[in-house]
Amino acid sequence: MDSSEAIYYGFKDTEIDFIVSAPCDNFSKLIEMIDEDDEIIHVPVTHEEEGIGICAGAYLGGKKPAILMGNSGFGNSINALKSLMELYEIPLIIVISHRDSEEHTIHDESLMEESTPRILEAMGFKFFKPGNGEAAYTDIRLSRDLCEEEGKPVSIILDEHYW
User: For 3-158, which CATH class?
Assistant: First the structure.
């Protein structure tokens, strides 16, 4: 099972049926798999915070949502995560991908790569950092249980070595 398949099958096994995605090259294969699955609704968005609102609406409509985003856009969603998702106890799996800081030239991505775990800790949100596909599959399952128990988002951070 490769890195994208691990996430996909983790979603399937936890009955995630609504996935929002913000642009990130690392998710291209995963998004293809999601788009081919008739049991999952996929909504692409241009901004992470709008994706958070869409996930909230999907949850209130009976769906089990998740969102895919790059680390550089994670900062855009902080207010929506605290003032919407946590306030109203809406469970959500957030999959955050880090781009390879040695290969990309966008400086803000490497800054957010360093800051993302600290920001999640400060927000009181739990997260996992799987090092391979098998661990990611397991962490998706743990995240689903944890976010439902706690009524707030749980993140999976996929660092540059995961891909």
Answer: alpha beta
User: Rounded to whole angstroms, how far apart are CA atoms 123 and 102?
Assistant: 28
Instruction: Tell which residue, 62, 51, 61, has the closest CA to residue 153.
Output: 51
Q: Is the pTM of this model over 0.85?
A: yes
Residue with tokens 């909504």: 43
Which ranges constitute the DSSP H helices of the chain?
A: 3-13, 28-35, 48-60, 71-74, 78-80, 107-123, 133-150
pLDDT digit string, tens, across residues 39-67: 999 999 999 999 999 999 999 999 999 99
Minimal CA–CA distance to 51: which of 163, 159, 153? Answer: 153
Which two structure tokens, joined as six digits, stand for 35?
């788009």
Whole-number Å distance between alpha carbons of 43 and 53: 12
